Protein 1
Amino acid sequence: MSEREFYIDPSRCIGCKSCMQACEECDTHRGHSMINFDFIDRPETIATAAYVCFHCEDPTCAQVCPADAIKKGLDGIVQSALEPRCIGCSNCVVACPFGIPKMKVAEEQMMKCDMCYDRTSVGKKPMCATVCPSQALTFAAPADIARDRRETPTNVFYFGEQKVVTKVFMMVPEGVEAVSVDVVDYMWEERAWL
């Protein structure tokens, strides 16, 4: 399946949460959904977005793990913390710029999207991409994406001045080469009341 890539298009998400239900069925997640689902701008719109792990080239979650429990495979997939090594410190949860890892307290283990490794390693699509009716989550060949979408994919993100390159692509408007996320852009500004 190396000719296929994972694409996220928040503009296509319809909020059905079928991806979350399908994720729970993945053998490696033991009944837990690893999809991060949220409302984009709750006061202003009903728009939603579903996100999977972006599988960073240089994963911050692995860098901050004091137990060396988080590993990135040769295929670029960043796995959930290794159960016997994870000490449940939550460093990875706090450090991830995308806010993806989840600490499962009952299991005492950090778990996150592993792109349904049990499926993709044998040539199948990740569970979420098989059920998404709007193709907000898609596992496809780059040529198919280029042919069928008007948006363009990017896997370059900026968090302030930190550049993060990922295995997973985000669909963005044509001409946009990177997604810039700076907390300053989202800080509340004091408004003058008349």
Protein 2
Amino acid sequence: MQTTVQSVVRFSGIGLHTGMPVTISICPAPANHGIVFERTDIRLGNARIPALFDYAEHSPLCTMIVNEAGASVSTVEHVMAALAGCGVHNALIRIDGPEAPVLDGSAVPFVRSILATGVKELDAPIRVIEVLSTVEVHTAQGWARLGPGKGLTMDFHIDFADKAIGKQSKSLDLANGAFVRELSDSRTFCRASDVEAMRAAGKALGGTMDNAVVVDGDTVLSPGGLRHSDEAVRHKMLDALGDLALAGMPVLGHYEGHKAGHTLTNMLLRELFATPDGYRIRECDAAMAARLPGAGVTAHEIPAVA
């Protein structure tokens, strides 16, 4: 059955890129509503933005969605990953600014509060997107591929010059709460050499050592070090789940990313939906539902490190 949150879940923080204070409320919504953001600070015009792939605009450092009236919300990937990873299909997300709060740089604050308030079943079947044939997209930086699979599985590969990150690869079946256990607490990361350049460009204005992992060569500058030795690739997988959630329904397939980011994953969804025989939408039977990322998740699975 489809789900929503049991009651309103609220967060306050700052935007990673804008540095602006923001409050966000994840509110219950009816069946077939999907995930929709609402800008409460916009008084005139359409302030609602569906969290769907064709509302996403190119932004290299985050995922930004924009409606026809120009209302936008950026850095939605962490909250989207948390909702997908906790099995929430419907929510109205009310936000009083243009960027979701970064919190600790991971999805675990969202996960913890969603699981604490609980997830409520709705009287409607889950619909899923079943990938039938492989689609692939490339840029000069990397590539991403989506092929058939019984659940949602993921392979990810990254390669950075800084030895504190270096080459990392991870494979994961996202069934049975794996997102919550394995990925949810992994934080966004950046190289110290990029920080000043980003700030000069008006980005990362809210970035601190408390909401991002900052590395310099073979040194992790953030206090406390890494939560996982491969935290960087885990965070890339977290982002990918959040970006795949913009499909509007759970995806059944195998995702593989090589040096991929937000733009590539969005390009991949656009390629999938432009390939009519590449997928089908179907109602989820009990066996399929049991393999979805949020099935059977409990708060006990949240990593102790977070």
